């Protein structure tokens, strides 16, 4: 190894550069929020039925019960709200998962939460004959929660480490999807009803479901913010984190609870939408660097941008029918993701 | 009473007992080095002292309190540890990594302060990485990286600092570099340092207090000039050698006996154990 004399950098004092970077990050976040607002407007204004902007405005603020008013108020607004909620949930749970497992390719479903929710919903439809979306929600949650606990126990409650957790989650996922497929094959009626749900769609969103899932997502958001700092510490290895005074077990448990709340709620409401929770936090990390305290807010804003944006796109490209958001995010996001990963490390903020 | 000590601890991983009924005191303001052959329990002892490993019996005391019952952050403000395996998060800059050493001094309501900033600056200056602040950690050489990790541990501002084999995987010049840095921290900042080292000659040269461990037992402890003798090296490492004065520093220097001189003795040496 050669002695490398470090390249002298221009004598700009570090506090100034740090402040500049913080300002830049904050400005970027603000811009992202602006984009999200635009996407929300688009999501309310654009749909399978072309409604003039004036009518949309009318429907939002002075509804008189016309057909267009009903579409705007009962279809597009709940759908937009749901898109934002689910996007936040997927972005945050993905970011937490990647930090928790120290794996930039981890996605929210890695701990089996999605699979658990799916298995419970399939059971509810096939064996209990539950048909309404609002009825699924609780089963999805129950499934997500049970599987989280099982995975945590399998992953070794005391010696839990990222690899064991991920392995246990993967095993649970395969087993549960095997079950889901078996039930679907044996019960074709259930298969039909499930088809929409398992692809991931915002189309069925109504205010009642929004009202049911938002408290869970809000709780998940608060939890993730609480564990951002210890997650930062844990990314440097268990020993280092403990030496710094972080509580490993407590943080892991809280992270699992947060993921279950967020991912369970998102899956319950829209079915397993993959990819958003993988791609957004990964890309955010290349923008903000590895500080979880910045990754979380960015992911929480940009994930709904991708989700709602894809949803709007899905309504436009296949008019008068529409493409489900789960398909669009994968179709649009995939190539973009590959492109960005190839030019890894974009100008870091 | 010293600040850090172990009181008749039994150390075990799962069912495998590494050390039984071990007691040790770390002299305040010393640069203590723990030496011993592979798998003798020296790293295990360090892990117990730094509360990474909970003794199955006995207790580790920090300032008179059982370390495992103290709040984690309180311990982390008194005792720092540089473990063998630290992971630098992908794409982190040197300054950001060092700043993470401030963790135990911060909380939800007490975030980054000018004092944190000052201490991070000082820690980077003390370890000679101040100019690298904006560089990515994964671009650095092994020696530079180790300095950055030490800077992070310094930013924790603990009067006691424990280092688990800080020179492993470094080439000779960087090993000396890191040890010089440790000696400097000990001398100029008055910190108590405890390090596990592989190289007996490094230990003899830099330590003010040496602890020799074999099979989970402390065989000898004291200043290197008193502890490092040919008999002790043979007893602890099973190696016949001469101990001469280091021509540079006058500290003991271990010179292993020539192969021909060692061969017939080997069975005896093993039996002696």
Automatic annotation (TrEMBL), chain A:
Cell location: Cell membrane
Transmembrane recorded as keyword: yes
Pfam families xref list: FecCD
Annotated transmembrane regions: 29-51, 80-97, 109-130, 136-154, 166-186, 213-232, 253-283, 295-313, 325-342
Membrane topology: Multi-pass membrane protein
Keywords, ordered alphabetically: Cell membrane, Membrane, Transmembrane, Transmembrane helix, Transport
Keyword Transcription belongs to the record: no
Family that this chain belongs to: Belongs to the binding-protein-dependent transport system permease family. FecCD subfamily.
Protein name as annotated: Iron chelate uptake ABC transporter family permease subunit
Biological source species: Streptomyces pyxinae
UniProtKB/TrEMBL annotation, chain B:
Pfam families per the UniProt record, alphabetical: ABC_tran
Domain ABC transporter: 4-240
Topology term for the membrane: Peripheral membrane protein
Predominant location category: membrane
Keyword Protein biosynthesis: no
Organism encoding this protein: Streptomyces pyxinae
Coiled coil: none
Transmembrane segments: none
Cited InterPro entries: AAA+_ATPase, ABC_transporter-like_ATP-bd, ABC_transporter-like_CS, P-loop_NTPase, Siderophore_ABC-ATPase
Native organism taxonomy: Bacteria, Bacillati, Actinomycetota, Actinomycetes, Kitasatosporales
GO molecular function: ATP binding
Sorted UniProt keywords: ATP-binding, Cell membrane, Ion transport, Iron, Iron transport, Membrane, Nucleotide-binding, Transport
Protein name stated in the entry: ABC transporter ATP-binding protein
């Amino acid at each position: 190894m050669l002695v490398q004399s470090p390249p002298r950098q221009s004598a700009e004092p570090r506090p100034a550069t740090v402040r500049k970077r913080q300002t830049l990050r904050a400005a970027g976040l603000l811009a992202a929020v602006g984009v999200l607002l635009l996407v929300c407007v688009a999501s309310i204004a654009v749909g399978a039925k072309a409604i003039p902007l004036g009518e949309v405005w009318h429907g939002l603020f002075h509804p008189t019960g016309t057909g267009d008013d009903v579409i705007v108020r009962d279809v597009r607004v709940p759908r937009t709200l749901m898109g934002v909620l689910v996007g936040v949930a997927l972005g945050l749970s993905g970011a937490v998962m990647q930090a928790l497992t120290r794996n930039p390719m981890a996605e929210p479903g890695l701990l089996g939460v999605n699979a658990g929710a799916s298995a419970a919903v399939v059971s509810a439809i096939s064996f209990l004959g539950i048909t309404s979306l609002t009825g699924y929600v609780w089963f999805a949650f129950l499934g997500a929660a049970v599987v989280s606990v099982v995975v945590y126990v399998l992953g070794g409650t005391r010696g839990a480490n990222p690899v064991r957790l991920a392995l246990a989650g993967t095993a649970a996922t395969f087993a549960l999807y095997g079950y889901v497929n078996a039930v679907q094959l044996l019960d074709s009626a259930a298969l039909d009803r499930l088809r929409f749900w398992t692809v991931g769609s915002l189309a069925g969103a109504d205010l009642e479901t929004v009202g049911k899932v938002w408290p869970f997502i809000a709780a998940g958001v608060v939890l993730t913010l609480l564990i951002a700092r210890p997650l930062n510490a844990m990314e440097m290895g268990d020993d280092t984190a403990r030496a710094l005074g972080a509580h490993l077990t407590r943080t892991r448990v809280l992270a699992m609870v947060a993921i279950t709340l967020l991912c369970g709620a998102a899956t319950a409401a829209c079915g397993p939408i993959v990819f958003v929770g993988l791609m957004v936090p990964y890309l955010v990390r290349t923008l903000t660097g590895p500080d979880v305290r910045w990754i979380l807010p960015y992911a929480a804003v940009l994930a709904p941008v991708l989700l709602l944006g894809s949803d709007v796109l899905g309504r436009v490209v296949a008019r008068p029918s529409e493409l489900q958001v789960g398909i669009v995010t994968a179709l649009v996001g995939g190539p973009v993701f590959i492109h960005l990963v190839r030019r890894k490390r974009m100008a870091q903020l | 009473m010293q600040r850090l000590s172990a009181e008749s601890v039994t150390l075990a991983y799962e069912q495998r007992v590494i050390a039984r009924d071990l007691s040790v005191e770390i002299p305040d303001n010393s640069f203590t080095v723990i030496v011993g052959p592979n798998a003798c329990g020296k790293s295990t002892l360090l892990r117990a002292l730094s509360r990474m490993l909970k003794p199955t019996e006995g207790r580790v005391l920090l300032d008179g309190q059982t370390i495992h019952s103290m709040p984690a952050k309180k311990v982390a403000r008194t005792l720092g540890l540089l473990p063998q395996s630290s992971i630098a998060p992908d794409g982190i800059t040197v300054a950001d990594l060092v700043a993470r050493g401030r963790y135990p001094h911060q909380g939800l309501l007490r975030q980054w302060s000018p004092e944190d900033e000052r201490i991070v600056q000082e820690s980077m200056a003390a370890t000679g990485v101040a100019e690298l602040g904006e560089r990515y950690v994964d671009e650095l050489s092994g020696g530079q990286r180790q300095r950055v990790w030490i800077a992070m541990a310094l930013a924790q501002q603990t009067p006691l600092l424990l280092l688990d084999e800080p020179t492993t995987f470094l080439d000779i010049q960087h090993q000396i570099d890191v040890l010089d840095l440790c000696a400097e921290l000990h001398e100029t900042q008055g910190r108590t340092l405890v390090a596990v080292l592989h190289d007996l000659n490094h230990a003899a040269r830099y330590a003010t207090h040496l602890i020799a461990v074999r099979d989970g037992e402390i065989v000898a402890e004291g200043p290197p000039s008193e502890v490092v003798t040919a008999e002790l090296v043979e007893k602890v490492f099973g190696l016949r050698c001469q101990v001469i004065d280091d021509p540079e520093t006058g500290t003991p220097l271990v010179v292993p006996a020539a192969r021909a001189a060692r061969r017939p003795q080997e069975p005896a040496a093993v039996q002696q154990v």
